[in-house]
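Table S2 (continued). Query chain:
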Amino acid sequence: MKSFAIFALSATALAAPAYHKRDYVYDTVIESVYETVYTTTTLWVDPTQTPVSSAAAFYEQPQAAPTSSSAAPAVAVNTPAAAAAAQVQPEQASQVTTSAVYVAPTEAPAQTSTTSAAAVVSQQTYVPQAPATTTTASTQTGTSSGGGAMHTGDMTYYDVSVGTGSCGTTASNSEFVVALSHLDMNNGVNPNANPLCGQKINIYYNGATHQATIFDTCPTCAEGSIDVTQSLFEAVAPNGDGRVHDVTWSLA
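Corresponding output:
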C-alpha cells in the first residue's frame, strides 16, 4: 500500500505539464551614419586687383555619442523567444552647400600720359643806361657816398641868427646848417614847403666829410655854391679866409 502511494504520487508528478519561467530580454541598438559632401566654389577675380583667397567653409554638426547597452545573459529555452526587433534610425547627413558667385572681370582703364615739352626761349634785350644828370657850377663831377648827385662850388659863411631861414625855422651859429643856392632850391613851390628843407647833405673837402642840414636859401650864390654857419665853415676849412673854392657836396 505504501509503495502504491509513492508510485501514484510519482505518476501524478509525471503527468503534470512542465511549466518553466521564461525571461524576455530586449536589446536596443543605435546606429549612426555620417555622410561627407564635398563642394567646389569658383570665384572670378578681377585681374586688376589683388586676389583674395576665399576658402569654402565646412561645418560639421556635433556628433551624438553612441549609446550602448549591455545585453543581459540569455537563458536557454526550448521555444524561440519573441525578441524585439531592433530599430535603426540613420541620422540625417548634414550637407553644406555653397553657391558659386560670378564676378564679371572689369577691364583696367588705359592710362594715357601725354607730356608736352614747352620750348623755353631766352631773349636778351639791351637797355642803354640813362646818363646821370649832374648840375655843377664848374666842370668837376663825381659820385657821392650818399647816392645823390655831386655839386661843386664855393663855400662861404654868414650869421644865421639874424632871422628866420627860407624853410621857416631858426638856427644858431653853432649848428651845422647850410643855405643852398637859389638855383638849387628853386622848384616853383612855396619856399617853406620846399622838399629839400630839413634834408642832410655831405660836404667833401680835403679828404674829409662833414654833414649839415638844409636850412635856408642863398639868393646871391652861384649854382652849386653853399653858404654855411661860421662853426661849420671852420670845421670844413680851418685855414679858409671866408671863401673856399672847389667844395663838393651831395644829398646824404
